[in-house]
Description:
CATH class: Alpha Beta
Order of helices and strands: HEEEHHEEEE
Radius of gyration: 16 Å
Shape: globular
CATH superfamily: CheC-like
Helix content: 25-40%
Distance between the termini: 35 Å
Amino acid sequence: MKAEDLSRIDAFLSASALEAFASHGLVLEEAEYRGEGIEEPFASTIGFTCGANRGVLVLTASRVLAVSSLPANLRHGEVEARMIADWTGELSNQMLGRLKNRFHGAGLEISLSTPTVFAGREMRHFAIPSSVYRSLLFTGGGGLLLVEFQADFGEDFELGDGPDDGETGAAEGEVLFF
């Protein structure tokens, strides 16, 4: 894969994360990657397919960051782990939806699966070898967010300039009826 396509994927990931959390009133900043784990992590993984290609987005948020991004009406008292886990799954879904729209603009149609959420101590994601692996770290709300993206795109894979049909993807939050 070309370096410019990898840079575009990084930009898509960053913009999608920043927008998803900003829509919930939390400003994130990109940070230098570090090898240390995330304290009190909640992780969500959500897969996607694109023809014969497949991949996964893994979002790992510290408890404090996840709670900081919750809607205000849900941030009262001690927030239960189940609520934080559910919310982390929702955040990964929202982020991958934004990423899907960006990929659509680059001529790539992806289909999403449903998120699976984990919570624990000292969790690590052991990425299986894939042709594309990207990792971005963010700070915000007093905590950390790690975004990992893996995809099995072929060596000759290239992002296009956009779809030829003139259509755009659905806006975030838009309701579609089938």
